[in-house]
Design goal:
This protein is of the alpha/beta class and about 425 residues long. It contains 8 helices and 24 strands. Helix 7 packs parallel to helix 8.
């Protein structure tokens, strides 16, 4: 499978009479057209649109998801298969990408684990979405709507908006500034071409604990699947979509799945010092039996391909730590070396145990930072959304929102602050 990402560099966003990319790199958006395209769900009382640009004194809260605008212009299937397009395999052909732009969904709270994005100030240092030019969708649910229906309406509206923007840019004659090509050889071919290089796969753990802790693969709630194989390119076309309301700091938003830095790093090293075999997706479960089943299946797949090493990433914390460590222990017992990517909940002073589980085999671990660290976010001139939820989202507390508009929270409340795919700025080292 060969995928070409045709990227248009977006430098700003503004409202206009049509949706297109102007010569200066500004994404001009028809507010009326976009609103008509997304505001058709019976569970939504209203949808409002706004814009938030890097460096502005703007706060978005509570943030549900972020999605990068993409649209397939050549090849099988369409972006976000099984969600807002037909269920066809994706990951090949050409996909138009509005690089530097994001659709950010926001609105009255679904769960308590949603986040904050500040476009400037201290908070902007911790979220990657302070650097994107954001088209923000603000939702109001109809009275009495069940939370799962509300979450679905928000999720689908965001995906539709992201696809719409890239599609309209393509139809208006948008031309890419650069093209990135992603392709790995078949297993048989790679064994010939890269003989002698260690075979490395990526074990991609997806948040699937239910109760609004869900991730979707080709439209299927991933807690219903057994571990399976994906071509790494499929993630770039939106085969994996966030539908969860877990803590904002380490929730893998749809944007992050589309731009998974672990996959990109493995691609960069493929054929040089490793033979990148592919991606194994697995779920994170709540019962011991389900954890054992998924862990056994995932490691079985790795052993069937003769994998020498596994990079394992987690999503979430606490209960999923048990899945992470179980995957590590099983793989190491099967003779497969592992590297784990996680974040820490080590207390506000950093002195507590970082993970809820541990194993002696877990001796190669990358941390994305301590989510319990306290930060104070300065007041912003403009707030998109509903700032009062700062007191109840995970990482916040009664009194987090101060009278002057500043907010005292743990990093846990900031969207993407300790992303366990490494799509952030924090880390640590030991020696």
């Amino acid at each position: 499978m060969k995928l070409e990402l045709c990227k248009i560099n977006i430098k700003s966003v503004k409202w206009g009479v049509s949706t297109e990319v102007l010569k200066d790199g500004t994404l001009q958006v028809s507010k009326e057209e976009l609103l008509a395209f997304v505001a058709d769900d019976e569970n939504l009382k209203s949808v409002k649109l706004d814009i938030a640009l890097p460096g502005e004194s703007v706060r978005i809260v509570p943030v549900k998801d972020a999605i990068q605008p993409r649209y397939k212009i050549e090849g099988e299937g369409q972006v976000f298969p099984g969600m807002v397009s037909d269920v066809e395999s994706v990951g090949s052909g050409k996909t138009l990408v509005l690089d530097g732009a994001a659709v950010v969904t926001c609105g009255r709270i679904v769960g308590f684990q949603e986040g904050i994005v500040d476009m400037s100030g201290k908070g902007a240092e911790y979220t990657p979405f302070s650097k994107t030019c954001n088209v923000v969708l603000v939702f109001e649910p109809k009275e009495g709507v069940e939370v799962y229906a509300y979450e679905k309406a928000c999720r689908l509206a965001g995906l539709k908006a992201a696809m719409y923007l890239a599609k309209r840019v393509y139809e208006s004659g948008g031309v890419s500034d650069k093209t990135e090509t992603y392709e790995i050889a078949s297993f048989a071919e790679s064994m010939k071409s890269y003989a002698g290089l260690p075979k490395v796969a990526y074990l991609y753990m997806l948040q699937t604990q239910g109760l609004l802790h869900d991730t979707y693969v080709y439209g299927i709630d991933a807690k219903k699947i057994l571990p399976t194989i994906l071509h790494p390119n499929e993630t770039m076309d939106g085969a994996i979509v966030s539908g969860n309301c877990v803590s904002a700091c380490d929730k893998n938003s749809t944007y992050v799945h589309q731009n998974n830095p672990v996959i990109k790093s493995l691609y960069e090293r493929n054929g040089k010092d490793i033979n990148f075999i592919g991606v194994i997706i697995t779920n994170e479960n709540v019962t011991l039996a389900d954890k054992k089943r998924s862990s056994a299946f995932a490691v079985k797949i790795a052993t069937m391909f003769g994998v020498d090493g596994l990079v394992i990433s987690e999503e979430g914390f606490g209960n999923p730590d048990a899945d992470l460590i179980m995957n590590c222990h099983r793989a190491e017992a099967a003779g497969i070396k592992t590297v784990l990517i996680t974040d820490e909940y080590a207390g506000r002073d950093g002195a507590s145990q970082s993970l809820a589980d541990a194993a002696v085999e877990a001796n190669a671990v990358v941390t994305a930072g301590n989510a319990n660290m306290i930060v104070t976010l300065p007041p912003m001139e403009r707030v998109i959304g509903f700032t009062e939820y700062a007191n109840v989202i995970a990482g916040g507390f009664d009194g987090s929102l101060k009278p002057d508009g500043s907010i005292e929270v743990e990093l846990q409340a900031i969207t993407g602050a300790t992303c366990e795919l490494g799509f952030n700025k924090l880390g640590a080292e030991t020696w």
